[in-house]
From TrEMBL:
Taxonomic superkingdom: Bacteria
Pfam families tied to this protein: Ank_2
N-terminal signal peptide: 1-23
Stretches forming ANK repeats: 78-110, 176-208
The name this protein goes by in its record: Ankyrin repeat-containing protein
Species for this entry: Fibrobacter intestinalis
Keyword Endoplasmic reticulum attached: no
Keyword Repeat belongs to the record: yes
InterPro entries per the UniProt record, alphabetical: Ankyrin_rpt (IPR002110), Ankyrin_rpt-contain_sf (IPR036770)
Record-linked PROSITE patterns: ANK_REP_REGION (PS50297), ANK_REPEAT (PS50088), PROKAR_LIPOPROTEIN (PS51257)
Keywords for this protein: ANK repeat, Repeat, Signal
Amino acid sequence: MKTKKILALGACALSLLFTVACSDEMDPNDPASVRKHLTKQGIPFTPNKFMSYIAQNDTAAMSLFLKAAYDINSTDGNGNSAVAIAVNKGKVDILQYLIQHGAKLDGTNSNGKTYLEDAIENKHREVAQLLISKMQESGEIQSTAPAVALAAKTGDAEVLKMLGDAGAPLEVRGADSYFPIHLAVKGGNYDAMVYLISKGVDVNAKCGQGYSVLDWAKNEGYTRLIAYLKKHGAKNTPAYIKEFGK
């Protein structure tokens, strides 16, 4: 009788140990279980930690966070989302990964710039191309006038063409009263100007001050741009001629 009781107690103890051991195993399909695993590993379940994996290209660790029900659109202590970090660092593969896992592309970074504007400023053309293609798919391409203006202003004819080919508006007056063609010319950006003209923008559009595209080209002394503009019908305004002569 005593032997049976000892055996029964041993069986119970073994069963309890087995249950505890099983409960310590991570269930990848249970977010709570994954979070518990991260805690046991001393890994903080925070946006800052998730962002650190971007710099390391560690999609395995990122995937573990997502299994723990991490919000992929969360922002870090500086106000940047994972997409903002990936864009700023030019990490196109990580950006693709984030998009595939539901990251939104309509946000801004901590400086208030859209993701596309940040990609253009940092000359991350592969990233810009990916963003543009996704915005074309979603119909958001029509909201990219500020990005068009930036590409024209910085003389990035390659990105300007990406935008134009995707259906972005190339002739929207900005808050500064300039059209993209004005910004391209004011900056002496010949290739950007040529592309815009090839797409049929108005070469005689006036800025908010009343000056034409050719007025600005002459004001800056860009002889190559002046010749091209005149060849395509650009004219000085009467006000400019009166003030500065032909």
